[in-house]
Amino acid sequence: QLHRRGFRCLHGVDGSAGMLEQARSTGLYQELRLCVLGTEPLPAPAEHYDAVTVVGALGEGQVPSTVLPELLRVTKPGGLLCLTTRSNPSNRRYKAELEAVLGQLERSGAWQKLLAQEVEYWERATTEEESTQGTGYISGVVYIYQKCPVPHLEEG
C-alpha cells in the first residue's frame, strides 16, 4: 500500500533473517537490516526518517514498549510515527504498558498524538477466546504521533 501511494524509499528491520528474505523478495525495499527491536539500537543515524512504522510487532512477547525512544531517535523532527497493537485479552497488559509510555512521551513534549483509532476487525483470531464477541477477529489500535520539533534556543 505504501509503495502504491508513492512511497519509494523504504527501509525495513526485523529480528528474523527469514522475514528479511521474504521482504527482500518483494523488491519494495531499498535497505533491509537484521535488528532485534528493543534490545539493540536501530541501524540508522539520529533524525534520519520522515516516517517510522511498527505494525504487527508491538505485543506481548514481541517488541517491548521500551523501544519507543529509539523509534523517536531515528525520526526527523516533525516526522510521523505509526504504531499498532492488538486489543485482545492476551495483550491487555502489554497495551496498558504501551499506552503509559506513549502518554509519558507526549507529556514530556517528545511527540504529539494525532490519532488513536480502534479497529474492530484488526486480524483473524486464532482462538475463540481471543475473538471479539465471536466475530472470528480481534480488535486493535492504530496510533499516529508527530515528533515535536526541537525548540529553538535564543542566543545571548
From TrEMBL:
Q: Which CDD domains match?
A: AdoMet_MTases
Any idea what this protein is called?
MET27 protein
Question: Which gene does this sequence derive from?
Answer: Mettl27
The signal sequence is: none
Locate the Methyltransferase type domain: which residues? 4-82
What GO molecular-function term can you cite, just one? S-adenosylmethionine-dependent methyltransferase activity
Q: Highest taxon of the source?
A: Eukaryota
